[in-house]
Amino acid sequence: MQLARILYVQAVLTVLALCVVWQTAYVRREGYRLEELRREKERCETEVHSYRAHIERLKSPPRILHLVESLRLPLTQLTPEPSVAAVQDQTPREPVQVARRPATTRAD
Q1: Number of domains composing the chain
Q2: Residue 96 lies in a domain
Q3: Which of 28, 29, 64, 108 has the fewest Cβ atoms within 10 angstroms?
Q4: Between helices 61-70 and 2-59, what is the axis angle to 10°?
């Protein structure tokens, strides 16, 4: 009876030790994965920053002016024409009459 009890306690302790080892390995693996994701995020942020800087350089007015002059393109300023809907909305309209209820006094 005593031997069975010792074996039972030893089996339980072994299972608990295995669980601790498994959990430690799992936490370590997830930590490595988290660190890899952080590095990837930083790499992506750097890439986005470089893309935005490149876009700003492409939008640069001096660069555009230089391209227009080097390609000998006519430089004209276009003014947008008002649309038909915008012109129709500017026609004067009659004011709308709103019916109101007469004010009632509250007798308390």
Answers
A1: 1
A2: no
A3: 108
A4: 50
